[in-house]
Each structure stands twice: as structure tokens, then as C-alpha cells.
């Protein structure tokens, strides 16, 4: 998925190219180039491409490489920044999706003017982008902000990273599914969720069940929110942000997520931090956040 | 305790004034003024005072106030920056002790040239100062960096902050004492530590017992290190620092602390962070760290 975005956040052009169709990053960059060439009458003369922002899993801001991403067919170290700069001859900035979402929120969204905030993306996993003093935190190696992999319980659920009990195994669209199945095993309440196979269950279905007062769904949200609330309280003790944004599939559950997360976070907060930190939805939630976030990387740097 | 420090970190003058002797912050500032006046032949003509750096509990960098500090006789909000600037007519910068230690390490110590590191002070409690992109993290309200109060176990040990299971109730000079007493209750091994009352036990005595192969002392260090190692792994997932410094009473135990903390942290780290993060002693450990750290606040700002 890619697009052209102006510095006010208007999406001028949007298109799709499927990464698995291209064996090498060079072929992929060329395909993007050809696609833009074929549509150039839509922007030529009116707009000039000043840079490429790319949000990709395990993409490193410093090196400009995608490093050992599990879900891409390009293996090992992929010099995506270098290849795009060669192909297009404009500045290219890369980082992971959650970091791009944080920058997008800062440039176009609800974090305008904020200097200290945290973006949490709740999709298949839990991603995070941390902003301190108005700058995204990349850390000394470019990989900071992996809150999905702080440990909830060292003897807990198996995580895709190979370890046990990571936050994202509990708090994500997948995590709440696992919780529903645990609760269906523990209790014998009737529940519509008993008719849905694991591989078909979605966060949206759990939300719909909660709206129909399904007790399993309610307890699943409470369980998820308590774990997230406790870990957000730890994050506040770390960087004392003005706000924490929740974004993505699970955040669409609205009050079922926001209200209990806020409640539990306040319970776990050190007294000096209480009633200071907002938990709010991302303004990009309903927009094309992936494209806007990535484009914001460029506008942030130019500004 | 106060002193004069030049920009190379040389302690030119050192003196003591006891805070409980002064009912108000104004009287205290005047006492410091009078003390310096009485010794002015030691620096007058050679040095000029360009600023005051003050490390104090609950001192807020932004507001310049000490806010509701439990262990000071000045209650409520104490405008220490304002009072010192009036008394001395030079720039005054305040923050808490652990933040001052972090800046001290960066200006004079082992963190010279580092842009991303964490300072952990292990004294009566656990303090922390976090540096990201070369800047101390104060957060939106000036109180960031309270790693002593991230939660280890919500049903765990009672903390001075009013909550349960905070990291500092396990990992600090006091925390390891509590662990020794727990282990003395749990096991029936003979141990020299059985002859020491709680109120007399120190981290140094536990280290000495470990040096004599006391099994209770060994297990106490292992228990403490495992908890700290796990929480440092979470901190690395947050900000990906180049190094973590350990400082203060418990850090004096040397290898009894550093080796197992490193071992456990590596076990808990996400694979991409393994074998990247140093755990090292503070260079200020043997110097007058409180004075150097506070003075560094000023030199950092002037530079």
C-alpha cells in the first residue's frame, strides 16, 4: 500500500502493490516507480515528490534497513532506504509501523503540539511508538519502543518472539482471542462465542458479544484492560507522557477498552501521576493511517 | 551537603549544612550564603559562581519546586529554585538525586559521549535517571524516571508510596534486607545473618556474608538480581539504551550484583537486544557523587 500525501495530510493518490509478488527489494522499488509513472498525469506539474517515508516491520531508522523481519519474503538485512533512494533520487526515511503511526499522530492527528506521548497499536500484535521531548525514541540501536515484548508473566503464554508471557500475547486482537478461549475453558456460562472457531474469531466479534452482554466477552475485556492498565502505569513511571493513544483493531472496541484501561491504569499509578495522563483514541484510526504515518516521517524531518 | 565544582568536575570546596535545622527554605538559603561568605577567601578572585545545581527528593525541574517530599521538614510545595535565585542572583537548576546522578555520569563519568543510557541508584530506595537522545527525560510534568515504583507484584511488599509490590521494595539496600529476612524465615540453614537484627542489617553485611559463602546471602543476591534483570529487560524494550549504570550502596556488592543482573537481563531480553546493553558501575561511585551530580546540572545547561 502506498500513496502521495501533501504536508497538510491530504492523500492525493493511493495505490497497492503486493510485496510477496516481488523476489527482491530492487524489483519492488521498480514496481512502485512504474506504478507512479503510469499515474503521473495525476500529480505532475502540481506536486513534486520530496521524499519517501516507509513503515515496515523491523525497519531500522538509523541503518535504513529492514532487519530479519519474520513476515516478509525478503530475508536477512534488506537495504530498503538505499534501494529507494537510488530508484527515486529523493530522501527516504524508514521505521516500523508503530513509530510511523506515532509520527503521523504528531504531524496530522491528536498529538499535534504534544511533546511527550506514547502510541500503542493493538492489531495482530502490540506495537508502540514513544515520543519524548518532541522526538521519537529510537534508542542507541534504532529498535526502541518494543512494549509488546515487556514481560507480563515469565511462565505465561508463548509469544511469536520465542519467549513466554510477552504483553502482546495478552493485549492485542490476537491476545484477547486467546483470553476468550481461556475463559470459555474456565467457565461454563453459555456464550455465542462458543460457536466460533479460534481461527474465525475477531476482536470485532468479541466487541459485538460484549454489546449483547455476553459475560465471557465482558470478562475478556476486563482481563485485557487490567494487564494493559498495569503496564501503562509502568510506562508512565518511565517517561511520564501527557497522553497515551490506542490505535488499531482492538481500539475499535471503544469504551469496552478505553474505560477499564483508564480505571486500572489509575489504580496502578504512583500517586504523583494520578489524573494527569489522558488515554485517547488516535485521530488516524479512521483514515489511511499506514500511508499518513509513513508520509509524516518525511514532513517531520523537512520541518 | 554542598560544594563548589569547576567545569572539569574538580571539587574546590565542600561543606555541610543540616536541612532539619532550618524551619524555612529562606533560612536555609541564607545559611548556605553565610557559609560561603565565611569561606570566600578560598575562591574569591579565582572562581566565580555561575549557578546552583540542587538534587533533592521530589524536586521538579520544570517548576523549580520541591513538591510534597516525605523526608524533608519543609512541607507542601517549596519554591527552592526561586529562593536560591533571589539569595544568590545566579541561575539555579533543581531535579531529584537520581536525575542529578545521571547528568553527573554524563558530564564527568562513564557516560561521557553516550546519548542513551539509564542510571539506577540503589540506596534506601531505587532511583532512576533516564537519558534519551542526550537529554534527561523529565516527562510532561517533570517527574519521569520513577522506575523504583514500577510494579513487580501487585500483591507484593508494602511500599513507602502506599502501594504494594513496587520494584524498590525488592531491589534496593532495604529491599535485599527484606529478602534476607524472608529467606531466613523460609529456610533453616545456619547463617551469620540470623544474629543481626533487621534494623542493624546493611547491604554491606549481606555482601560480607556472601563472601563467606553464606547460602542465605547468595540466594538473596540471586533473588534480587532476577527481579532487577527482568525489569531492566523491560526498560531496554522501552528505550534501548547503550548502557545501564548501577550506583549506590547495593552496587558496592560488585560481582554479586553485576554478574547475575546481567545474566538475568539477557535471559529476559527480546532477541534483537541481546548482547548489546552494558551493565556497568558508575564512575562517580567513589567520588562525592551528590555534589558532582548536582553541579553537572549547571554545566550541562551552560554548555
Task: List its traits.
five-stranded mixed sheet, Nucleotidyltransferase, domain 5, globular, 2 domains, alpha/beta, 303 residues
Name the overall outline of chain A.
globular
The separation of the N and C termini of chain A measures: 25 Å
Count of DSSP-assigned helices of chain A: 8
Computed over alpha carbons, the radius of gyration of chain A is: 20 Å
Low-confidence stretches of chain A: none
Question: What is the correct CATH architecture of the largest domain in chain A?
Answer: 2-Layer Sandwich
**How many distinct beta strands of chain A?**
11
| Oligomeric nature of the chains | homodimer
What is the strand content of chain A?
15-25%
The greatest inter-chain interface is formed by: A-B, 44 and 44 residues
Instruction: Give the topology string of chain A: H per helix, E per strand.
Output: EEHEEEHEHEEEHHHEHEH
Major β-sheet of chain A, in short? 5 strands, mixed
Q: How would you classify the helix and strand content of chain A by structural class?
A: alpha/beta
Summarize the structure.
The structure is a homodimer of 303-residue chains. By secondary structure, chain A is α/β, with parallel strands linked by helices. Helix content of chain A is 37%, strand content 16%.
Amino acid at each position: 500500500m502506498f500513496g502521495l500525501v501533501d504536508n497538510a495530510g491530504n492523500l492525493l493518490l493511493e495505490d497497492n502493490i503486493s510485496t510477496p509478488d516481488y523476489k527482491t527489494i530492487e524489483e519492488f522499488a521498480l514496481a512502485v516507480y512504474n506504478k507512479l509513472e503510469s499515474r503521473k498525469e495525476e500529480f505532475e506539474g502540481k506536486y513534486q515528490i520530496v521524499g519517501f517515508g516507509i513503515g515496515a516491520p523491523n525497519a531500522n531508522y538509523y541503518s535504513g534497513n529492514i532487519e530479519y523481519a519474520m513476515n516478509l519474503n525478503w530475508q536477512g538485512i534488506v537495504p530498503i532506504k538505499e534501494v529507494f533512494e537510488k530508484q527515486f533520487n529523493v530522501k527516504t526515511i524508514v521505521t516500523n509501523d508503530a513509530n510511523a503511526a506515532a509520527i503521523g499522530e504528531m504531524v496530522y492527528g491528536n498529538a499535534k503540539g504534544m511533546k511527550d506521548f506514547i502510541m500503542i497499536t493493538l492489531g495482530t500484535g502490540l506495537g508502540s511508538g514513544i515520543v519524548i521531548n518532541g522526538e521519537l525514541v529510537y534508542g542507541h540501536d534504532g529498535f526502541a519502543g518494543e512494549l509488546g515484548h515487556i514481560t507480563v508473566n515469565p511462565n505465561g503464554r508463548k509469544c511469536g518472539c520465542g519467549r513466554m508471557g510477552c504483553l502482546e500475547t495478552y493485549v492485542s486482537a490476537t491476545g484477547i482471542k486467546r483470553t476468550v478461549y481461556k475463559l470459555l475453558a474456565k467457565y461454563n456460562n453459555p456464550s455465542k462465542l462458543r460457536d466460533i472457531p479460534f481461527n474465525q474469531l475477531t476482536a470485532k466479534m468479541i466487541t459485538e458479544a460484549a454489546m449483547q452482554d455476553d459475560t465471557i466477552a465482558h470478562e475478556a475485556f476486563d482481563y485485557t484492560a487490567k494487564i494493559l492498565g498495569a503496564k501503562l502505569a509502568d510506562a508512565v513511571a518511565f517517561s511520564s507522557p501527557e497522553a497515551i493513544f490506542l490505535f488499531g483493531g482492538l481500539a475499535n472496541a471503544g469504551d469496552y477498552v478505553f474505560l477499564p484501561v483508564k480505571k486500572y491504569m489509575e489504580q496502578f499509578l504512583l500517586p504523583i501521576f494520578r489524573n494527569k495522563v489522558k488515554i485517547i483514541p488516535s485521530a488516524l484510526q479512521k483514515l489511511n493511517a499506514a500511508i499518513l504515518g509513513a508520509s509524516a516521517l518525511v514532513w517531520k524531518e523537512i520541518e
